[in-house]
C-alpha cells in the first residue's frame, strides 16, 4: 500500500540534515505535486506529534521565512530549534537561506 501524501511529506522531511532547511514547495515538487505546497504546509501542521519524529522546524517558505512558527506549541520554538542546529534567524527569516537550502530533488 502506498503511503499517504502526508506520510510521504513526513518521510522527505525526516531526510533534511541538521543545520539545513527546505521549503514547502521543494517538498511538493519532489513528490511530483508542484502545485501542492499548501498541502505540504498542512502536513507539517500534523507533524508535531513527537511520536512521528518529524523535524517540521526545518521546513520554511520559499524565501526562508518561518511562516509555520505559529503551529508549534510556542511561536518561538521553531526559531529555537533552528538556532540549536546553528542556523541564524533574523526577523523570522533564515540568514544565508540559499546556502542552507536543501533541495530534495537533488538529494534523494
UniProtKB/TrEMBL annotation:
InterPro entries xrefs: ATL_DNA_repair, MethylDNA_cys_MeTrfase_DNA-bd, MethylDNA_cys_MeTrfase_DNAb, WH-like_DNA-bd_sf
One MF annotation (Gene Ontology) recorded for this entry: catalytic activity
Pfam families per the UniProt record, alphabetical: DNA_binding_1 (PF01035)
Keywords, sorted A to Z: DNA damage
Residue ranges of domain Methylated-DNA-[protein]-cysteine S-methyltransferase DNA binding in the record: 5-87
Gene Ontology biological-process annotations: DNA repair
Name by which UniProt lists this protein: MGMT family protein
Source species: Pedobacter cryotolerans
Lineage summary: Bacteria, Pseudomonadati, Bacteroidota, Sphingobacteriia, Sphingobacteriales
